[in-house]
Amino acid sequence: MIYLDYQATTPLAPEARDAMMRWLDGPDGTGFGNPHSPHRLGRQAAAAVDLARERVGALFPPGGKVFFTGSATEALNTVIRGCEPVREGAGIAVSAIEHAAVWDTARALPNAFHEIPVDHAGLVEPEGSLPDGVGLVAVMQVNNEIGTIQPVAELARAAKAAGALFVCDAVQAAGRIPIAHADAIAVSAHKLHGPKGIGALWLRDGVEVAPLITGGGQEGGLRSGTLSPALCAGFGAAAKLAKERMQADAEHIEALWQRAMQVFDGWTLNGSADARWHGNLNLRRDGLDVARLMSDVRNVAFSAGSACASGSGKPSRVLQAIGLSDKHVKNSIRLGFGRYTGMDDLEEAAASINAAATAQGI
Ligand code: PLP
Fold first, then answer.
1. pTM surpassing 0.90?
2. Which of 118, 117, 132, 210 is nearest to 164 (CA)?
3. Which ligand 1 atom lies nearest to the CA of residue 169?
């Protein structure tokens, strides 16, 4: 099976797996300690968590702190629901192409909701003014469906000028490109070759957030619950590796992108080609029956629109936001590749996908 769904999740790095094993039970059976216990086993586990926090923290800009969570979804819920302006009733502005973790959370709150539009290329317009009363602005760094890279620095400045907190969902950016400056940033281990079940919320020093999950007061009281040293260690190892390999991975992915542009020449790209993470290929072809394509192409794992939206039966909100007709939204597929994708994998997948599309008579 050729895996071309890197935006949904990424393969676990062997280095991350190795780092985790020690903290599941370990070769001498001493790796299971509770990192919040004061005895030796606990302190060893706590040291592993500290190292992981340092490694994950190295992905972020200086001047803030990492809080581990169960997912990026939890991190985003924590900051959106718990930050001071939102609790005090201020309005929330989010881009039209945010992930459901931001979009649905903001919509679920009683606060005034403002959608920041995007252009046909899938880019948020930083010039647009924010309405009065907005206390929180959330714009993602790299979009999960079309890979577009947002002008986050300018948006953060606009939010600051409006007196609002700026939250950035950097899930698809972390480990791939340097993370932008913001007041709060969410990332997820499984999108950067770490394990599933752990994410992080980074908060700039001085940003106050009330906990979503209360109890034992772990994570400085922001997120109660016993941490998993194995998940933390895997996340840390994956983050360290991603930082070290950022340039090499980007060069590899660029070579795949260049080849993809040749082998998928009969397709139209959704979203900007330039302001884009080149490990994302969201393509459409007029008349394409995507469900049939997916059942015909058995040797490739890929996605129709967004993996998060697929199965919901709802057309992609992101593709609609960039102005695609319902027909074109339904003609779209998403391919995602990365560190462990070989050139031969890409070529073989393209041959299968192109053959299946041609067999549909289009
Ligand atoms: N934000 C973006 C852009 C994503 O792609 C995802 C996962 O698909 C999430 C948030 C949610 O991450 P998690 O799976 O850690 O909850």
1. yes
2. 132
3. 1
